[in-house]
Protein 1
Amino acid sequence: MDASIELADLPNTLDVTNTDAQAEVKRLAALTAAEYETERKAVARRLGWRTSALDAEVRKNRPRDPGDDADQDTATVIETVELWPYQVDGASLAEEIRDRLKAHVVFGASGDADCAALWIIGSFLMDTWRLWPRLLVTSPTKACGKSTLLETIDAMAHRGFIVSNASPAAIFRAIEAWRPTLLLDEADTWMKQNEELTGVLNSGHTRRTARVIRVAEVNGEHLPVAFSTWCPMVIAGIGSQRDTLMSRSVIISLRRKLPSETVTRLPINLHDQLLGLRRQIARWAADNAVTLGAMEIEPPACGNDRMQDNFTPLWRIAVALGESWPDRIAAAYAAQAMAEDEDAEPAGIMMLRDIAEIFASRRADRVATSEIVSDLMVMEERPWADWRHGRPINAQSVAKLMKPFGVNVRVLKLHGASARVYLRSDVAAAAARYASQKCNPVTFQQNQQVSDLSKRNLEPRVTREKSDNLLKTNEGYGVTPKGCAHDDYAALDDPNNPDTWA
C-alpha cells in the first residue's frame, strides 16, 4: 500500500486471539501455495481480515525451510565477541592493527593506515560517540586493493559485514537488526546515483540524526516506524563520491603497488585468525569507554568544521592510546586538510581566497579592478585564464562572483584619479568568514599539559605557558602550521598588526 495513504483511512483489523482464528491460520499454513491461494480471500472475508494481514499470519506459521534460514546464515557473521581476559596495552594493539593493514595494501598517504587503525578501534565504541565519520576508501583505478582492505578491516572491526550491493531499505533494516560495521564495496557502480541511498548514508553521521522513518505493516496496520542508521560504515569505490558523503568521511586512498613493493596475500581464514585481536580491541574499548566519553578535547581548527568533527573521535582515541599516536593522528589530520581538492571549492570561495592573496602581496588598501583581473589570470593551477570557453575572466565575472560575499566594486580615488576598485577591508572581512586558510606543512609540538589520560606519555612539558602554537589545544598534542593561522584573513584588517597596509 502506498505510504501516502492516511492511517485513518485504513480499515481496522483483528489480531489472531481467538482459538478458531488460530486454528484456521495453522490449517492454511499447512496448505500448498496453490491451495492457499484458492482459499485465502474467502477465509479473510469470513474472519473480517484483510488478505495482507492473513498472509502475514500464515507466513509466521509456515514451517521454516532450512535452506532459507537467513537468521542461521547471519549468525555466523554477526558475532558478539567475548572480552579478552586481561588488560590490553592500547598503543601496542593499535600498532598491530596498523601493521596488519599495511601488510596487505599500499596506502596513498603515510597517515592513512593510522587513521584506519584508530577507526577500527572506534567501531567498538559506538555507544560513546556523538558523531562518527564514514571511512571512505578510494583509488584512481581498479586493482588497487580496495576489496582486500575491506576484508582486512572486516576481520578486525566490530561485527564486520561486507556487501557489494544493497538497497536503501536493506541497509537501514540491517543496521536496525544487527548493529554491524557495514563495509560497502564497489560503491562507484551502484551508490553514487542513488538519491535515497545517499540520504540514508548521510543520516548516520551523527547519533541524534541517525534514523529514517518508513511506513511498515505492524500487526496488520500500516504505521510509521523508525529505523536506526547509526553504525560504523566503510565505503570503497573508484574515484570520488558525492560531496555530502565525502564531507562526512575520513578519506583513505590506495595505490596500485609497484614491482618493487611487496604485499602479503590474505589467508583464507583471516577472520578466524584475528578473533583474538577482536577480543583485545573489545577489551580495550570496554576499559576506556567512560574515559573517552568524558573527553572534551578537539583537534585544532585546520581545514573546515566538518573535517574537525570527523577527526575528533580519532583524536581522542589517539590521546588515550598515548606514545606516538597523538603525533601520528595530528600528522594525518593536517595532511588531509592540505589535500582537500581546491577545485571542488565553489568558484566564489576560490576567487575570494585568491583576491585576499593579491591584497596581501600588494599591501594596498585598495586595488583597481583591472589589476585584480590581471593578477588572477597569471595564477598557476587556477581556472581564471580560460574561465569561459577558453576566454579569460573579466571584470564583470569578478563582480558577479564577489557580490554574494558583500565585496562590491567602488568608485574611489586611486593614484589621483577616479577608478573602479575593491577595498582591502571588504575582502578581509569576507575572507575571514568564508575562506579561512588551510594548513600548510606542519611541525609537531607537545602541549604544555601532558594528558592524564595517557599513562605512557610521561615526558616533561616542552612548550611555554603562552605558547605560540597557533593550532594547539589545551590538552594532548597540537599541530603548528608554518605561516598559517586560523584568523590570518581577519588579521589583515587589524590596525595593531605591523603588517597592516598603509
Note: The longest helix spans residues 275-294.
Protein 2
Amino acid sequence: MERRLVLLAGVLAFCACDATLTETRPRKSGPVAEVGLIDAGAGRARYALKGPGWLVSKRRKRALALIAKRCGGPALFKVAAERDEDVPETRYTEDDLDATTFLERGHYKVEKYRIMEYECLMP
C-alpha cells in the first residue's frame, strides 16, 4: 500500500508541469455599445516538451483548454503560430548572485517549451 502511495505521489509530481498562459491581450470594446468588440483579444500559451509523448499531448490539450476558456469557447480561437523555444529558468535573480556566479550560469536550468500564439475570434 505504501509503495502505491509513493508511486502515485511521484506520478502527480511528474504531472505538475502544466500548461500556462504567459501573455494575454484583453478584449477591447468599441466606443459605444452598438459597436461591440473591436479586438477579441490574443495571447501566448506554453507547455513543456519534457517527458513521454502521452504527457506532452496532455499538456497540449490543457493549453488548448486554457485558451478556449480565455476566449469564450473551443470554436472562438485560432492558433496563429507555434514554435519550440529553450527557456532558461532560475529561482535566483541577477541581484541575488555575485558577479562570478552569474557569469558561470550554472544556476540556470534550460527547458524546451512549445510556445503557442493564439487569437480570439469574434463571437
Note: The CA atoms of residues 27 and 33 lie 14 Å apart.
